[in-house]
Amino acid sequence: MVRQARNVSPMPSPATVIDPAELGERVERLPGVAELRAAANGTEIHLVGGAVRDLLLGAERADLDLAVVGDPAPLARRLGGDVRVHERFGTASARLGGGRIDIARTRTETYERPGALPTVSWATLSDDLARRDFSVNAMALPLTGPPALIDHHGGFEDLQAGTLRVLHEGSFIDDPTRALRAARYAARLDLALEPGTAALLAACDLTTVSTERVEAELRRLAAEPQAMRALALLVEWGLAEADLDLAARAHAVASRAPYAAGADAAAAFLAAASLRVGDYATGAELVPARELAERSETAPSALAARARGHSTTELVIARALGAAWIDDYVGKWRDIRLEIGGADLLAAGIPEGPALGRALEASLRAKQDGEASGRDAELAVALQAAEG
Question: Which letter does DSSP use for residue 5 in this model?
Answer without folding.
Answer: P
